[in-house]
């Protein structure tokens, strides 16, 4: 278990690296995050964190960047923070006085095409909020997986060479593999966070996946889908044997260097609005 000081140093490295995408040095940490700790002490703590596998140095004499272990330790501390899951994304009000898109408005739409349009607008908004790829699976509304934000993901420094993002692009193209991931989330429920090598597919090691399952009955009650169609659309009981109810899964794909706090808040807000 990390001491409070070492945890503060690690947290500061993660926060700075998420913002800058550059290795973080001791002077930056003292200047911007830890003014009450000397640079020499911070260097010693960075050395300890590196020896223990929480951070690494990509180049000789360079600053440090978090490892998967460092990110996991940081994320776990976020999840343990009291009241973290009650934090909602504060949606801005545009100049016309209308609130930003939300799945909460989908339930009031009877036309399936209107629902699809609203879903895409909502995903686009939260993709822009997190600068990552958002994916939504609502089998009761559409046979395809909704997604928005791929250009934002490709704009991240990690994917300047587009070939680095090929696994995600292939995942969107081959929706069978994507559905397998989303079905796993639907079966087990809860918040799924897979950081780098925690993903089961080695091709996804450069990425982090965050996903949540939610009850979608409120979104499908006025879909305008025929009774026959509703009978063949899978329910949670069809997939898992659990009590039947319509469900959805929302997921976020991004680099391991992502703002996990914003990402988790975005997913939580989407799910809370959807469940109403």
Report on this structure:
With 276 residues, the protein is of the alpha+beta class. The chain has 2 domains: 4-81, Arc Repressor Mutant, subunit A (Orthogonal Bundle); 87-275, 2-Layer Sandwich (Beta-Lactamase), CATH 3.30.450.40. Helices cover 46% and strands 13% of the residues. It has helices at 4-20, 26-32, 39-51, 68-79, 112-130, 150-154, 166-173, 175-188, 217-220, 227-232, 236-240, 260-275, and strands at residues 55-56, 65-66, 133-137, 146-148, 191-195, 207-215, 247-255. The protein has a 5-stranded antiparallel beta sheet, with helices on both faces. A two-stranded antiparallel sheet has the order 1-2. Strand 3 and strand 4 form a beta hairpin. It starts with a helix and ends with a helix. Mean pLDDT is 86; it is low at 93-97 and 222-244.
Number of helices: 12
Q: What is the topology, as strand order, of the major beta sheet?
A: 4-3-7-6-5
Biggest sheet character: 5 strands, antiparallel
> What oligomeric state best describes the polypeptide chains here?
single chain
CATH class of the largest domain: Alpha Beta
Rounded radius of gyration (Å): 21 Å
Return the average pLDDT rounded to an integer: 86
Report the principal-axis shape: elongated
How many domains would you count in the coordinates?
A: 2
Helix content: 40-55%
Report the end-to-end length measured between terminal Cα atoms.
Answer: 39 Å
CATH homologous group name of the largest domain: GAF domain
Helices and strands, in order, run as HHHEEHHEEHHHEEHHHEH
Class from helix and strand fractions:
alpha+beta
């Amino acid at each position: 278990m990390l001491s409070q000081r070492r945890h503060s140093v690690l947290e500061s490295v993660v926060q700075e690296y998420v913002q800058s995408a550059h290795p973080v040095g001791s002077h930056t940490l003292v200047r911007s995050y830890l003014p009450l700790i000397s640079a020499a002490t911070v260097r010693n703590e960075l050395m300890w964190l590196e020896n223990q596998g929480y951070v690494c140095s990509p180049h000789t004499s360079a600053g440090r960047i978090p490892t998967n272990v460092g990110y996991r330790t940081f994320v776990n501390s976020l999840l343990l923070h009291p009241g973290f899951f009650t934090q909602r994304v504060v949606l801005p009000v545009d100049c016309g006085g209308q609130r930003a898109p939300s799945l909460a408005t989908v339930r009031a739409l009877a036309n399936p095409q209107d629902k699809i349009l609203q879903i895409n607008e909502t995903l686009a908004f939260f993709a822009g909020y997190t600068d990552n790829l958002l994916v939504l699976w609502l089998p009761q509304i559409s046979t395809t997986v909704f997604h928005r934000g791929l250009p934002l993901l490709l704009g991240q420094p990690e994917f300047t060479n587009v070939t680095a993002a090929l696994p995600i692009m292939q995942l969107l193209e081959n929706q069978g593999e994507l559905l397998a991931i989303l079905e796993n989330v639907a079966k087990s429920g809860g918040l799924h966070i897979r950081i780098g090598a925690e993903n089961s597919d080695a091709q996804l090691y450069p990425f982090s996946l965050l996903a949540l399952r939610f009850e979608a009955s409120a979104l499908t009650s006025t879909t305008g889908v025929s009774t026959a169609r509703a009978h063949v659309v899978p329910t949670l009981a069809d997939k898992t044997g659990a009590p039947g109810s319509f469900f959805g899964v929302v997921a976020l794909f991004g680099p391991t260097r992502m703002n996990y706090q914003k990402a988790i808040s975005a997913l939580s807000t989407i799910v809370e609005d959807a469940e109403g």
